[in-house]
Each structure stands twice: as C-alpha cells, then as structure tokens.
Amino acid sequence: MKYVSTRGQAPVLSFEEAMLTGLARDGGLYLPETIPAMAPAEIVALAGLSYEEAAFRVMRPYIGDAFTDAEFEAIIARAYAGFAHAARAPLVQLASGHHLLELFHGPTLAFKDFAMQLIGQLFEASLKRSGKRVCIVGATSGDTGSAAIEAFRGLDSVDVFILYPNGRVSEVQRRQMSTPSEGNVHALAIDGHFDDCQARVKDMFNDFAFRDAVGLAGVNSINWARVLAQVVYYFTSAVSLGAPHRKVSFTVPTGNFGDIFAGYIAGRMGLPIDRLVVATNQNDILHRCLTQGDYTPDGVIPSISPSMDIQVSSNFERALFEAYGRDGNAVSQLMQELNSGGFSVSQGALQALRETFDSGRCDEDQTRATIRRTFETTGELLCPHSAIGIHVAEENLTPDVPMITLATAHPAKFPAAVKDASGQHPPLPPHMADLYERSERITEAPNDLGAIQDIIRKRTGH
Ligand SMILES: *Cc1c(COP(=O)(O)O)cnc(C)c1O
Q1: Residue in 196, 247, 182 with CA at minimum distance from that of residue 403
Q2: Which CATH number is associated with domain 91-109+224-422?
Q3: Which pLDDT tens digit goes with each residue over 76-106?
Q4: Catalytic one among 2, 112, 413, 419?
Q5: Ligand 1 pocket, 307 CB below 6 A?
Q6: pLDDT class for 220, splitting at 50, 70, 90?
Q7: Is 112 in the active site?
Q8: How far apart are CA 343 and CA 336, in angstroms?
Q9: Does residue 139's CB lie within 6 angstroms of at least one atom of ligand 1?
C-alpha cells in the first residue's frame, strides 16, 4: 500500500513513512493510492467480533508490510486496553431510528483517544525497531493535545510538544495536558487562537532545516493513521444495526474534518452509508462551503464547543482532493488562494461533495436546548459537541434509514457548559476523579514561530 500527497508533489510513501511524517513535504496530506474494498461477506463477518478483532480486519489492508499480523494485533490490544468500556464504542438508542455512538470511554474522555492510543503504540513499535527518536509537535483546541500527551507520556523515543490557545480550552482539557509529570511531554500555552497554533505547527513542518534537526513528526488529525483508526467504529456501529443488509446514516460533530472523513473512507470501502452529515457550531465555514461553494475564513467566534471552533479545517483538503478527481495541482491552487483569503469550489467538485455530504449548523442556544431536552427525554447527558450532532441529526432523520450520531466527548470534559444548560453536574469518571488536585506544568509562549522553536530546541537538546 502506497500513500500519495493531496498536492501531488511529495514523494510517494509507505504506511510507516506516512505515519511518521504526518504532513507531506509539499504541504499536502497523505492518502492511500487506492482505497481497498471490503466485500459484503467480509462486512457481515464483522458482526459479533470484539472491537479489537474488527479493528484488525478493517485496518489490516492499509498497513502493508509495516507490521506482522501478530505485531499489529498486539498493538491494537495495547491501544484499547485502557478504555473504560468493554465494548470500546458502545451504541445507545435515543429514539426510534436515532442512535448515539459513545466515543468517550477512552483515557481522556474524547473520541480522539481511539486514534491517539493506536498511533502511540504504532510509533513506539516502529521507533523501537529503527532506534530513531522523534519530536511530535501538535496543535490542539483541547482534545487532541490531551489525547496525545496521554498516549505518549513516558515513551522512550518520543518528545511531545502540544500548542494550545491560552485560556481557550476547558479546565479539564488543560489539566489533562498539564498534569502528566513525565519529562517527555510539554504543554505550550500560546497567546492566540487554535488556528494560530495550527498555523505555527504548519510553519514548523515547512521549515525543513528545523524539521530535520529535531526529527519533527505530526500526530494532528492530518496524520493518515489517525483517520484510519477512526474508520473502524463506522463499521462496528453500522454492522450492529444491520449493515451491510441495511443502510445507515451518520451525523458527525465536525471541526478539522478528520472524523467525518473517516466515515467517507468507510463508505468508499463498501460500507453502505446513505448520508454523512457534517454538523458545525456557529463557526460554520464547512456548512457554508457545502451549501454555497465558498470557503472564506472570517475569524473564530469562541463557543461552548471549543473543539469545533475552527475556520481552517485541515482534513477538508482530503475531501477536496477526491472531489477534484485526485487532481493535486487543482488542490495546490485552492490552497494558494486560501492563503490570500479564500476560494470557491468548482461546480463539478461541489456536486461531488454534495453527493456524499449533507451539513447543518447549530448555534449556542440550540446547543444548550439540545443538552437540556436530550437529558429530559432520554437521561443521556451530552457534551456540547455531541449536542450539536444531535441537533443537526434531528433535522436530517429519514424514516427508513437509521441515524447514528457520534458522541465525541464525555460531558464531564465540559462541566460548566453542561451544568449551565441542564442543571446537571456531570461527574468525572473514577479514574480521573483527583484531576483537580494534581499539580500543573505549563510553558507560556507568544504566537511567534522563532520563540516556539527555541523552546523546542532547548528542551530536546538541538
Ligand atoms: C476534535 C473534536 C471534534 C471535531 O473532530 P474533527 O475530526 O476535527 O472534525 C468534535 N468534538 C470533539 C469533542 C472533539 O474533540
């Protein structure tokens, strides 16, 4: 299995190389050269398997010869051992034809654990073999960073630096990043928004001298291995509702487009998905783009769903690449236009996007009302991100096709917003009940590339 860049100019890589690299050297994102199909009988055969067994079968074709079957099985087993629910991704029914896929039973209480725990084990296995050391740098609006620090803390061959917008993540998110005491993980509070953090990370990857000197590696949602890990739960949940004999739809609370793009891949592999619905908060650039074709970022408005406060949605580039018939030059052109303000999607590409994706937006009042109403009618306490999914899903229900909405975080990760909306205080699960007592370790930094690079060089001895 070979991997190609969405901008068409970077070297073709193996799975292991693409995983360790993250962002391609031409600024693009890696995708498999061809997307392997699963025959209906192979999808049927997933029914009744453990999550780990299903994960092995869905992901195996993408790995190539990077790991033996036994190695890959052991990697998957270690990745999901720390989850607090035996089913890993349990499906809960909310109403007739509407189901909630609970993706928040991992160690940091958000769906990002599914990918990050796996990638931590993949990196460790790969680096141990080669004797190399890497420096992981990532940007987070809260959940990626905590998931990355949790997945890599204490590993021998990896340093981790996470840039987060100072004062713009929830206290639980911040504490999950700042309380691990292992010396190889570092939380950097940047004076800026999430998009600034993401831009500085991209700058570091585009500074090839720095990139090579510190051995930069990326685990942001652009990393293909993360998208791949997320493909699995589309299969397990759909199969439990009768796929492939029955179609299902998904609604996905969306920011960087990684999670929903995994759904797109599941569909391309043969899972019969009817609709994939993008749910955004008031930062609705994706909804506007999918309805009107115009992609022009206009500044982030902070919301009670901070993990979706995004105007530059990095994985959308992968969807554009597919919608433009895998034309890397066309994608490069769009990304250049984006650098000088924005771009318009061509009619043909917009039509292609709309064949797969629907979209909707949910404002702050609607988010709070959905948290309250869902608790009253079902007893399920939603985090604000999941509530956005539920609101948009309810606008897109159809009588014949069951809808699965992805619950992307545990309500206890956003206690203030949940309490405000529902009157209910969501307690932390037992394994992190003492989070507020642990001591914190944070480095503050300006939104300045040179200053951030200095911190990283000093801490890694380069
Ligand atoms: C990251 C995140 C999202 C958005 O996921 P993308 O893959 O970036 O679209 C939604 N909800 C929560 C809780 C998240 O942490």
Answers
A1: 247
A2: 3.40.50.1100
A3: 999 999 999 999 999 999 999 999 999 999 9
A4: 112
A5: yes
A6: confident
A7: yes
A8: 9
A9: no
